[in-house]
Design brief:
Residues 37-575 form the Hydantoinase B/oxoprolinase domain. With 660 residues, the protein is an alpha+beta fold. It has helices spanning 6-10, 38-62, 66-69, 96-101, 191-199, 204-232, 234-255, 333-339, 350-355, 389-406, 466-472, 580-589, 594-601, 618-626, 644-648, and strands at 74-80, 112-115, 130-139, 142-152, 181-185, 188-189, 263-271, 282-294, 305-311, 366-369, 420-426, 432-438, 475-482, 498-504, 508-513, 523-524, 534-537, 545-547, 550-556, 561-565, 605-606, 615-616, 639-640. 26% of the residues lie in helices and 20% in strands. It is globular and about 75 Å long.
Length: 660
């Protein structure tokens, strides 16, 4: 930690990057201090959450592709006419690119806008398979709000099925990029645009059906919000909107930012490969500065008082492969709302943490500073981006790590909870198929509890049901369970990842867009890193081989098994401080092996799991642990990155930023 330089707090960003943002956005709808009925605020807030959930439910029930309908990889959001996100149940894309290209005064009821162009989305869309629809809400002939949905669709063209070529070197290889267009004009669908999109997709029927589901659901949501305005009046509703966001700002200022001591803290983490170059450390660095008395910045809508400055200087150069993310648009507006949920871990209790929404109210509390164009977070068109999860998900961990340095480790250890795996080929009837799913992994141990098993970072997302996949695709799921010993050891253990085994009934190809196959989810404050991601084809068979985590077309023969093991979360605290009774319990539950109980925790077991009399020898355990060196804050690194880090860091066991 270092002291805060006052000049740094008042300095303007070096590179306010992005497309023109001269259109009005981000401002209040009512004057500061306008009186508001607190009961109406509760009604409006509840209605917004209800409408958002109703939109998502409608999409889930009427869409067609497994990624949308079954894996639930989509989100809805509600925004006001100043483009501010009002809801906090889901994250969502941005309305900014729509209003940039289509003035509010020219919009009509029944309009539906569409885009998926990464570089023209102003940071709200990360890769081309994420298709976004936006519907304006009208009251007395004027736009008063927006309902938006975006989801990860099966295929939008490009060099490989699924539109996520792991070796892409330009966005042109990744599929069809559509800048903001009017997909429905006053209730009339643009059939020509839809035909162009479906013609470019390997899965045209599911693409058309999913888009229809999303457009219809958002139009329904717009009608619901129009009814809310008609019932209470525009002035009252907009006053409630401001009150909702003001409450979020004040809550985070009082309950969250107050927990971070003033000062400057630095930490970094890495993506391990980009699909083109050899594996290396692609650095993502955050310098976090917390100030309690920052001056007001009305030009950027920032009030005086506590503020977090997140500076990404030191982030690696733009990658040749598709791990780049366009984060530097609209002052990092999307990234602020993407990263802010990590801060909720500073809440007084887990129950309070669950109550805290992330909406536009957090934006005034965070200032982001980006390096010049040409880095992982500031890529230059046409840099590829389809695997940008390696960056935006890693940034969640980087923020957690840098905050952990500020608060003596009272943050969770690392988790990496999204990767795309799948198979494609011809089904038993000779038709083309594509099966992809987003498998979760273990979350990090916390200073008060173990991590959770098989968590998905996308809210409400899930793995595909076995009954569904076996009935639709030519394979059998032979195992789906927890990956034993995958959670990082610690006083509080990391959560476990999945182990999934599928046996192919026909020749096919396996695909994977995944990270953390060399590096691992880091442990903190003496906790150990979790197990990395791994895919093995034909395990135990004559053709056994490990598959790269980035693969587009790995051949699998009929009868062969694919074994997928996802990452375990990092551990929190010294494993030698873990209650031996909990270690015995974990062995009984099959989460920790008997060998790991001794190796990682120094617990000497007695009896056996099979016989039902498993226990531990207290005296022998005490002797075993006494013979090992306990973790020391003064002598040891604060973070454990696992053995894979040394392979990419010239033998170093930890980075210079890993010590306190």
């Amino acid at each position: 930690m270092s002291a805060v330089d006052p000049a740094y707090v008042t300095a303007k960003p070096v590179n306010p990057a992005g497309l023109p943002t001269s259109y009005e956005h981000g401002n209040r709808l009512t004057a500061e201090g306008t009186s508001v009925d607190p009961i109406l605020v509760e009604i409006v807030q509840g209605t917004l959450a209800s409408v958002e959930m109703e939109v998502e439910t409608a999409i889930g029930r009427t869409s067609r592709s497994p990624m949308i309908r079954d894996a639930h990889d989509f989100r809805a959001g509600i925004h006001d006419r100043q483009l501010r996100k009002l809801t906090g149940r889901s994250y969502s894309a941005l309305v900014h690119p729509i209003v940039r290209d289509f003035p509010l005064a020219e919009m009509r009821e029944g309009d539906v806008f569409f885009h998926n162009d990464v570089y023209e989305s102003e940071g709200g869309i990360g890769h081309l398979p994420d298709l976004c629809v936006t519907v304006p809400v009208f009251h007395e002939g004027e736009v008063v709000a927006f309902v938006q949905a975006f989801g990860h669709h099966d295929d939008i063209g490009g060099a490989c099925p699924g539109s996520m070529p792991s070796g892409a070197t330009s966005v042109y290889e990744e599929g069809l990029a559509v800048p903001p267009i009017k997909l429905w004009d006053a209730g009339v669908p643009n059939k020509a645009a839809l035909r162009i999109m479906t013609r470019n997709s390997r899965m045209p029927d599911s693409l058309a059906a999913d888009l229809d589901a999303e457009c219809s659901a958002c139009l329904m949501g717009a009608r619901r919000l129009s009814e809310l305005f008609a019932r209470y009046g525009r002035d009252a509703i907009e006053t409630a909107f401001d009150a909702i966001l003001d409450t979020t700002t004040e809550t985070y200022r009082r309950e969250i930012l107050s927990k971070i001591p003033d000062g400057t803290y630095v930490w970094e983490d890495y993506a391990e490969h980009d699909g083109v170059d050899e594996p290396q450390l692609h650095t993502q660095r955050i310098t976090l500065t917390k100030v309690s008395d920052a001056p007001a910045d009305p030009e950027n809508g920032r009030p005086a008082g506590p503020r977090l400055i997140i500076d990404f200087t030191g982030t690696s150069a733009q990658a040749k492969g598709p791990i780049n993310h366009c984060g530097d648009y609209v002052g990092g507006n999307f990234l602020k709302k993407w990263l802010a949920p990590i801060l909720r871990n500073l809440a007084d209790t887990p129950e309070r943490m669950a109550e805290l929404d992330v909406n536009e109210g957090i934006v005034p509390l965070i200032e982001m500073r980006f390096p010049e164009k040409g880095t992982l977070l500031t890529p230059i068109h046409p840099g590829p981006t389809n695997a940008r999860t390696f960056v935006i998900l890693r940034l969640l961990g980087v923020l957690a790590g840098v905050v952990a340095k500020a608060v003596d480790g009272k943050m969770p250890a690392d988790q990496e909870t999204i990767r795309y795996t799948g198979v494609y080929g011809k089904d038993l009837d000779g038709n083309d198929y594509l099966m992809r799913e987003v498998l979760g992994g273990g979350s990090g141990g916390r200073y008060y509890a173990d991590g959770e098993d098989t968590i998905h970072v996308v809210p409400d997302s899930r793995n595909l049901p076995t009954e569904f996949t076996e009935s639709r695709f030519p394979f059998i799921v032979e195992r789906l369970g927890l990956a034993v010993d995958s959670g990082g050891a610690g006083q509080f253990r990391g959560g476990l990842g999945y182990e999934k085994q599928i046996r192919m009934l026909k020749d096919a190809h396996f695909m994977s867009i995944a990270d953390r196959s060399i590096l691992a989810c880091w442990g903190v404050r003496g906790g150990k890193a979790g197990a990395p991601f791994q895919v093995v084809i034909d395990p135990g068979g004559p053709d056994e081989r490990e598959v790269d985590a980035l693969a587009d077309a790995e051949p699998i023969r009929a009868g062969q098994v694919v074994r997928i093991r996802t990452t375990g979360g990092g551990g929190w605290g010294d494993p030698l401080a873990r209650d031996p009774e909990l270690v015995v319990r974990d062995v009984v539950w099959g989460k920790v092996s008997a060998a790991a109980a001794l190796r990682d925790y120094g617990v000497v077991l007695t009896g056996s799991r099979d016989a039902g009399d498993l226990g531990f020898d207290a005296s022998a355990t005490e002797v075993e642990r006494a013979g090992r060196a306990a973790w020391s804050r003064e002598d040891d690194a604060f973070f454990d990155r696992g053995p894979g880090y040394a392979a990419l860091a010239d033998g170093a066991t930890h980075a210079s930023v890993d010590r306190i």
